[in-house]
Amino acid sequence: MQKKVLLAGGTGMIGRQTQTILKSKGYLPAILTRGDSLPEKNIYHWDPVKKTIDSKALDQCFGVINLAGTNIGQWPWTKARKQEIASSRIESTTFLMEQIRTAPHPPEVYINASATGFYPDEDQDWLLEDHAPDNDFLGTTCHRWESAVHQNAPGNCRVCIVRIGLVMSTRGGIYPKFRLGTYFKMGVKLGSGNMYYSWIHLEDLARMFVFLLENKTCQGVYNGVSPHPLTMKSWMEVLAEFHKTWLTLPLPAWLLKLLLGDFAQLLLKGGQVSAQKIQAAGFTFNWPEWKQALDDLYKRST
Ligand SMILES: NC(=O)c1ccc[n+]([C@@H]2O[C@H](COP(=O)([O-])OP(=O)(O)OC[C@H]3O[C@@H](n4cnc5c(N)ncnc54)[C@H](OP(=O)(O)O)[C@@H]3O)[C@@H](O)[C@H]2O)c1
Predict the structure, then answer these.
(1) Which domains does the chain have, with CATH numbers?
(2) Burial track 94-115 (b if 16+ CB lie within 10 A, e otherwise)
(3) Average pLDDT along the chain, 302 residues, taken 10 residues at a time
(4) How far is the centre of ligand 1, averaged over its atoms, from the C-alpha of 9 (Å)?
């Protein structure tokens, strides 16, 4: 019998790719969505605000992967928007874990998304999973999100958290936005350009989720980043060389903060996040280097 894996927020960019990898490995992906239930298609409704969930969603689940949360890439970050970013992750995670804890047959494994925004801005040292969280909005939100997992984790279920870096895909995230500029032969330098971009190819990330699902020795927090982060400036240089751009527009940090407010955190925050723990667990990257990943993204978009 196919093993059922329930993906909360599985309709999003990472969820759709994870569904593809799961199917290719013989699993039965099921979706937990705020949309309508379609049990014949393995789609189940939940409403994390009203705290309701289709009673069949968790039936005979081998694993649960929680990716739910409102998109943080939408500007502006008003007070209400920040509240929504936090609660759509923390409260939905708490609710989902409560359902798992009280389910007649809890899943064997539970995996929750988090983000590398957890870490403070540090250019010098590698950021490992045991580092303390930043005290800015992203840091505290990720920390509270992860605490919701730790505090509600059922004893009989293996739990992993993936701190996801900048996901590189043709379907969303930052790559298509920067790619747009290259059609006009233009790149940008954000702030000093010296902050590290810890990135990961979408397919490697989806493979990592399935790797964690399958590897019984894996437990706890893992950084979901490639082993070769690079500074924003170098990241852009590779892109510029690849697409033969001839103009780099500098956008200083003060201007971004003035124009975008707190949202600028998302563009200016960096950190050299380490992939050492997941590699030591045996995971191998198909696209460890940005140049290779870019080449693949380009092929996929043409
Ligand atoms: N993409 C990145 O670069 C990146 C980086 C770091 C961390 N992450 C984290 O990884 C997770 C998945 O990312 P993604 O890029 O796949 O995101 P996405 O495309 O925006 O998908 C997220 C899914 O969450 C659900 N959702 C949206 N608003 C919600 C709300 N208010 N309450 C509950 N669920 C809601 C939606 O599913 P339904 O409408 O079907 O319910 C949506 O399809 C997110 O939590 C994100 O913070 C992503």
Answers:
(1) 4-170+199-226+272-286 (3.40.50.720)
(2) bbbbebbeebeebbebbbbbbb
(3) 97 98 98 97 98 96 98 92 97 97 94 97 89 96 98 93 97 92 92 96 98 98 98 95 91 94 91 98 98 95 80
(4) 6
